[in-house]
Design a protein that fits this description.
Layout: E1 8-11, E2 20-27, E3 32-35, E4 40-45, E5 54-59, E6 62-63, E7 67-70, E8 77-78, E9 80-84, E10 90-94
Antiparallel strand pairs: 1-2, 1-7, 2-3, 3-6, 4-5, 7-8, 9-10
Length: 102
């Protein structure tokens, strides 16, 4: 998976199509990501100790193929490629503007 926590992404498929958010968590084994404010679901929480039970809204994971990274320079969605920087280290770069991510 080439997506990382902190990447700004746009949803390209599903009920939240067109919305933008920041990746909070990546689930590499399931190829899913949790995006801030996207795919909101209601979770019922049982009473625990002195706390009362409640219904909490939280973000559910969305498949990584349903999001695309937003290019920081052009503000449009783009694919991600890999290149080497001047020190010879592999870095992620955008395909449209060739700007380095991270």
């Amino acid at each position: 998976m080439i997506l990382k926590t902190g990447d700004k992404v746009k949803v390209i498929a599903g009920k939240d199509k067109g919305k933008e958010g920041k990746i909070i968590k990546t689930l590499r084994n399931d190829n899913k990501v949790v995006v801030e404010g996207i795919n909101m679901v209601k979770k019922h929480v049982k009473p625990n100790g002195g706390q009362a039970g409640s219904i909490v809204e939280m973000e559910a994971p969305i498949h990584a193929s349903n999001v695309m990274v937003i290019d920081p320079r052009t503000k449009n969605v783009t694919r991600i490629g890999h290149t080497k920087d001047k020190n010879g280290k592999n870095v992620r770069c955008t395909k449209k503007s060739n700007s380095v991510l991270d």
